[in-house]
Design a protein that fits this description.
The chain is an alpha+beta fold. It is about 40% helix and about 15% strand.
Length: about 350
């Protein structure tokens, strides 16, 4: 497969120009670009440039509002609700995490619900913003049908990521950002576009048979982690980010690539709180917690017990020094979108 490399700064300028061409303001274009490039830098390619054409297609079809009138409703000093007016998800999430941070700094806890939003990329990207302000955070968002509820024949839940972030008293934050499916849907879409196989045991085709064919997996069902437990977690996220916020739920979130019958109306829930609400020495305690676990005896072949976020941080730092590799399908997308 033909690939090209581009400097991060060059790529940011190109993507920002494309978003502006499709009607986003300079600020909203930059917010969206930064989130997409971050996904590339941490190695989450299924949430990066491979989705750019999809966002632009949905803007063109008036399913994403490039000039949204976003309304923030104050419920209390700690609690806010945001109607994103079908904005691109990056912008809604950026406003929400900043509001949640502000609320937590004022009162100790911030709770922000978002409705009428779209796909916002990586939850961990927003969690990092809260952690940098010395806050603990939990973030939930639902998605289009991909995983079937335990015992059902039809997919209904999204891959519904669960995200938790905490300061660690070091420069590398603790960020657990994981979908409830064996692998996230972005990885399967990325594999399908690049004619790659997916691992065994992560998906079934439309006939209910195990498959390693990414295209067949997209037409079938993704498997949840840990069987009925993963299905239960997906349901929990659907309640928190869909039912609770006023967003779509119970399989009503539209697939951004395949369903152009209307806006997605995804719901997000952002929770942030200060580390010193119950103890005054959180940094000391979390440092002790991590040190204790890292000192445990290791199984053969393991050099270090890593906490969630360490590998992603290392990839980010390493990739930041290099040019971003662009696959042929993404290169064609960029060329077509610039026309």
């Amino acid at each position: 497969m033909e690939k090209v490399n581009l400097k991060t700064a060059t790529l940011k300028k190109e993507v920002t120009k494309i978003f502006k061409k499709f009607g986003l303001s300079s600020n909203h274009a930059l917010i969206s670009t930064n989130a997409i490039i971050n996904a590339e830098l941490v190695g989450a390619y299924g949430h990066g440039l491979s989705r750019l054409k999809m966002y632009c297609d949905r803007i063109s079809k008036k399913l994403i509002n490039p000039k949204p009138k976003i309304v923030i409703k104050k419920i209390s000093q700690s609690i806010s609700q945001i109607d994103a007016d079908n904005s691109i998800g990056f912008v809604a999430a950026d406003i929400a995490i900043k509001k949640a941070i502000k609320n937590a700094k004022k009162t100790g806890i911030g709770l922000v619900a978002v409705k009428n939003s779209g796909h916002y990329g990586l939850s961990g990207y927003y969690a990092e913003q809260a952690v940098k302000k010395n806050l603990i955070t939990m973030i939930y968002t639902n998605g289009p049908p991909a995983v079937s509820p335990h015992g059902a024949l039809k997919s209904l839940f999204g891959t519904n990521p669960i995200c938790f972030g905490s300061p660690t008293a070091s420069k590398i934050p603790f960020i657990l950002d994981t979908s409830i499916s064996m692998i996230n849907r972005g990885k399967i879409r990325f594999a399908a576009r690049n004619n790659k196989k997916i691992p065994e045991g992560v998906a079934l085709d439309k006939f209910g048979k195990p498959t390693i064919d990414a295209k067949k997996a997209l037409q079938g069902v993704q498997l949840p982690i840990a069987g009925f437990r993963g299905s239960g977690l997906a349901w929990m996220v659907d309640i928190l980010s869909g039912v609770f916020t006023g967003g779509n739920h119970a399989g009503r979130v539209k697939d951004p690539f395949d369903d152009f019958s209307g806006p997605q109306n995804i719901g997000h829930l952002f929770i942030t709180f200060k580390t010193n609400l119950f103890v005054k020495d959180y940094n000391k305690r979390i440092k002790d917690n991590i040190k204790k676990i890292k000192r445990l005896p290791k199984i053969k072949g393991i050099k270090e017990i890593m906490y969630p976020g360490q590998n992603k941080y290392k990839r980010f730092k390493m990739n930041l020094k290099k040019e971003i590799e662009i696959s042929d399908p993404v290169k064609k997308d960029l060329e077509n979108l610039k026309i």
